[in-house]
Amino acid sequence: MSTNVIRPILDTPMLLGESPLWHPVESALYWIDIAGQAVHRFHPHNAAHHKWSLPSEPGCIAYSKDGQILVAMRSGIAMLDPASGALDMLAAPPYDPSAVRFNDGRCDAHGRLWAGTLYDPRDRQGGSLFCIERGNIRDVSHPVTVSNGVAFSPDYRTLYHADTTAHRITAYDYDVSTGSVGKGKLFREFSSDKSANYGGRPDGAAVDSEGAYWCAMYEGGRLLRLSPSGETIREIELPVRCPTMVAFGGPQLRTLYITTVSHKRPPEELARYPLSGCVLAMETEVAGLPEHAYLP
């Protein structure tokens, strides 16, 4: 494994940190705490930190060019105004919120938010992938138990989508001009055998400027940088066991931010990994890709 200088950006741990998002206009990092039902923002230049509470668990966020933050929550889609804290509900959830909620997601180059869902009982593929476009919600019908790892290749001809419970990442043909998802093929599958050098399961991800897929390995304590063909290029050991997602940020998109978990983790794990729940940062040699705004 390769060791990097990895630091927490805040001393305050999240319960279930997720969906880190670099806002290019504000030069700030946004992220969510799912179990803590909140959106967070951090300005690296002055270490200013702000938090907005939400009425239900958020699954992912996107920034909008009008200065607002789109939030996909268990209870539906909403716009958060960071200036006032006002939350404007836009759409009801396209599922039964007693058993399903939104999870990981990302915007494409045409301003569509691709957000997956997870099925709380975790006993079948009761989740899916949804496209939120100009306020309309479309089910793409990718059956999963826990949707994660949504990301796009630099040319937007490939959409990556992971089912964390199945330990599997699929790469789909993608047409960004129409938002059409085509044929899928196995990108990478990981062992689920926890008795034999278990390396974790694929959670959130991001693609860098060279087309490599950076994947957080939940319960594996590591990040993987995968080639466009799914081979491991690099492995980075982390000071936490449960990373959830990564995002590139900073002025040159060479800072990798990593959200992590402390919620419902064993006491011995939290004692061994005291940075559990913290948002971590490390510098990378390869720049990431800019995140796109949601177009309402």
Features:
single chain; 296 residues; mainly beta; Neuraminidase; four-stranded antiparallel beta sheet; 2% helix
> What's the number of structural domains?
1
CATH architecture: 6 Propeller
Strand fraction band? over 45%
Please report the number of helical segments.
Answer: 1
What do these coordinates show?
- The protein is mainly β.
- It is built from one helix and 24 strands.
- The chain has one domain: Neuraminidase.
- It has one helix spanning 267-272, and strands spanning 7-8, 17-23, 28-33, 38-43, 48-53, 58-63, 69-73, 76-80, 87-91, 100-107, 113-119, 129-133, 136-139, 147-152, 158-163, 168-175, 180-189, 201-207, 213-218, 222-226, 232-237, 243-249, 255-260, 280-283.
- The strands form six sheets. The protein has a four-stranded antiparallel sheet with strand order 1-24-23-22, with no helix packed on it.
Quick synopsis:
By secondary structure, the protein is mostly beta strands.
Write the layout of secondary structure elements.
Blueprint: E1 7-8, E2 17-23, E3 28-33, E4 38-43, E5 48-53, E6 58-63, E7 69-73, E8 76-80, E9 87-91, E10 100-107, E11 113-119, E12 129-133, E13 136-139, E14 147-152, E15 158-163, E16 168-175, E17 180-189, E18 201-207, E19 213-218, E20 222-226, E21 232-237, E22 243-249, E23 255-260, H1 267-272, E24 280-283
Antiparallel strand pairs: 1-24, 2-3, 3-4, 4-5, 6-7, 7-8, 8-9, 10-11, 11-12, 12-13, 14-15, 15-16, 16-17, 18-19, 19-20, 20-21, 22-23, 23-24
